[in-house]
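Researcher: I've been going back and forth with a colleague about how Phosphatase PAP2 family protein might be arranged in three dimensions. Neither of us has a model we trust, so I'd like an independent prediction. The organism is Lentzea miocenica, in case that matters for your notes. Sequence below.
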Amino acid sequence: MTWLVIGTDAVLGVFALMFLALWFRFRLRAFLAGAGVVVAYAVSEVVKLVVQEERPCRTTPSLAECPEPGDWSFPSNHSVIAGASAMAIWVLHRTLGWVAAVCALAAAASRVVVGVHYVHDVLAGLLLGALVSWGIALLLKKKQRSQDDAPTVVLSRLR
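Model: Here is an independent structure prediction for Phosphatase PAP2 family protein. You can compare it with whatever you and your colleague have in mind.
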């Protein structure tokens, strides 16, 4: 079962490799998508401080080492990062996005299997991460659209 513990962190490495591959094609958009993952993580840390739910490994045996007290369970940071990464990658590249979605689900499930999160922790984490990342993608798309329209507006004012 050690492979499950290692696999959870390895999936985050897979997301990093996907972002790196997308960097060569999308440059700034890939960077900003990755920044969305950081924002999602920050939001999850705030939620953890508000909710302060103990981890299941505090009361039952787990396959993974139980994090220190004060490292709250809800939402799962691994799941937030996985959900945000999968959504960001999906927005940039649909095929890689589907691969990322499967990896995100596997990462989230592994957190429950190894005993460090409840199911609702990982579901909330996936949803939170995906929504934050999607929201940032929409803002970026709107900003890009307004920049694309800017030359047209300037030209129409000149006429």
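Researcher: What would you highlight for our discussion?
Model: I'd start with this: The chain has a mean pLDDT of 84. After that, consider the following. Residues 2-146 form one domain.
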